Amino acid sequence: LNHTPVRPTTFIAARRLSERIGTDVVLASETFQHTGSFKFRAAYHVACSVGHDHILTASSGNFGQAMAYACRLLGKRSTIVMPSTSAQVKVDAVREYGGAVELVDVRTKSRAERVAELASQYPEAYVASAYDDDLVIEGNASLGEELADVEPWFDVVVAPVGGGGLTAGIISGLRRSGCTTRVIGAEPLLANDAARSLREGRLVANELEPQTIADGARTVSLGERNWAILNSGLEAVVEVDEDHIMEAVRMLFCLTNLKSEPTGALGVGALISQPQRFKGQRVCCVVSGGNVDPSVYCDILS
Amino acid sequence: LNHTPVRPTTFIAARRLSERIGTDVVLASETFQHTGSFKFRAAYHVACSVGHDHILTASSGNFGQAMAYACRLLGKRSTIVMPSTSAQVKVDAVREYGGAVELVDVRTKSRAERVAELASQYPEAYVASAYDDDLVIEGNASLGEELADVEPWFDVVVAPVGGGGLTAGIISGLRRSGCTTRVIGAEPLLANDAARSLREGRLVANELEPQTIADGARTVSLGERNWAILNSGLEAVVEVDEDHIMEAVRMLFCLTNLKSEPTGALGVGALISQPQRFKGQRVCCVVSGGNVDPSVYCDILS
User: Fold this and answer.
1) Residue A85 in contact with residue A60, Cβ under 8 Å?
2) Quick check: A254 and B294 CB within 8 A?
3) pTM of the model
């Protein structure tokens, strides 16, 4: 792991944001990670850990770009299944990173079906999950280790929850480093399966893919491997409504000069949704990624 | 200087941008510096070097915010003269950083006149220039020292030129560190007094304040102290037209996830204006600041 190309996270002391919220906030931005999100940590770890020379995965977003680039760095082949309705910039980005794109018309065939077809067409390929995989958690644990290296330790880390791979990784990395910093998840209210799971003490799924603007958190449920860690490891999940997600994107733009995608702003959204919960604490807010279309971004800013 | 609160610059290896341009580009972003631009380096150095407890300056932009915050950190008083037409967010920012704002209606009185009035009203105050001051150059030299610390050295550093305080500081810092990295300025074509000065070998001024979108470079001429350094120290000045400035802002957004103000994008604008000049070299591109109104930013993105 000494030769990992993973970039260290970018710490930004957010003074104006801290004064506005009334809490001492440091951002840990993964927006400058390779391919623009934390997903590269997991993708690279998966791609270099499995023996296969060809990796197949379904992703319309950051995991696809991350896996394409990780495979390119390792001289492997990647095939990324994307809905035919994906934004052209996202398709272009995967191709630019060296991935082969397989578009699927999700009105006639699900992504999972297309992945299964391709898996039988390429039996030598490894089929990677974007979150429900021990290798994914292990890759993301590198961020937890980095957070444990900051002294004095943060009181609490707040990070977005979609499939749960990021928070499970952070918890793993912190704990193995002996660091007791608490971890709180930030989840869209529209996609609150993690919050409900924590309340009910069992893995709960959304009925449909939730249509939150935080597209990285449009998961139906947590991964089982992630839930096993989050069930006892997460202190809480803060549910963030759509207005607070957009307000968080604007605050990051105006008060910290940081471009964040909506999913990346969930942590800040949690801080402004429940300021009392964080008052007087030293908070690290993970901004998980920055990839967002200019048109979506400007709609949020204006 | 060991206790300087100046934040180190944020280096971002810009892989997609590099591939697009055909040059190996690393960004040195000052957008996460205190108050969002490199100006804090100079403002803090001025404020802690002079004995005065009250500092007076005219600035509608980044220097005013920087000086207000530097004075607050040092327990000093600051008065910032701003045109009454300044965007409200800029006035608010100066006040939030602790500065007293004096608005001046520039149709009836120039900023310089108002500064002179205030200077006689507050004879104990130090009147600070935003660029034509040895202390400003010295403050900005800290960035040159940081660039000299990166090994192997960059072949060339490209940085915006307005009054010339930034490039003069970078050259000073590099040279005193024994570093031979070349320095190239990036200037709006609409405000090309530095390029003309270099061609003519003498300090040339624009007739009026140029109306470039790069508002940090709307200076009538270089400062005399800066010119003394730039005349021999700058390899060249690349003139960037308005379309390339805006394209550079878009490329930073789309390819590097970096929010830049138009002035901050001048270096990238220089790279895309004259790609042949930089081909095959290891270039450090200084992004001098990130403070830009959402509405201006979205006009550029769309």
Assistant:
1) no
2) yes
3) 0.96
Backbone angles phi, psi at A168, to 5 degrees: -60, -40
ipTM exceeding 0.90, yes/no:
yes
Q: Could B256 and A32 be called an inter-chain contact, meaning their C-beta atoms sit closer than 8 Å?
A: yes
pLDDT of residue B3: 63
Amino acid at residue number B282: R
Measure the CA–CA gap between A228 and A273, rounded to whole angstroms.
27
A257 → closest Cβ in B256, B259, B295: B259
**Is the Cβ of B112 closer than 8 Å to some Cβ of chain A?**
no
Neighbours of A259 (CB within 10 A): 27
Q: Which residue in this structure is represented by tokens 């000073």?
A: B172
Q: What is the pLDDT of residues A230-240, one digit of tens each?
A: 999 999 999 99
Tell me how close the Cα of A256 comes to any Cα of chain B, in angstroms: 7
**Interchain CB contacts (distance < 8 Å): A and B:** 59
Smallest CA–CA distance from B98 into chain A, residue: A16
Containing A24, the helix (H) or strand (E) segment is strand A24-29
- Rounded to a whole number of angstroms, the distance between the first and last alpha carbons of chain A is 43
Dist CA A272 CA A25 (whole Å): 12
Q: Which residues contact A277 (CB under 8 A, 6 or more apart)?
A: A184, A236, A238
Residue type, B174: L
Q: Do A34 and B16 touch (CB under 8 A)?
A: no
Residue A86 binned pLDDT confidence (cut-offs 50, 70, 90): confident
Q: Which 8-state DSSP code applies to residue B216?
A: G
Q: Which of B197, B196, B171 is nearest to B184 (CA)?
A: B171
The beta-carbon neighbor of B257 closest among A16, A259, A298 is A259
Residue showing tokens 């400035």: B245
- Asked if A55 and A136 touch (Cβ cutoff 8 Å), the reply is no
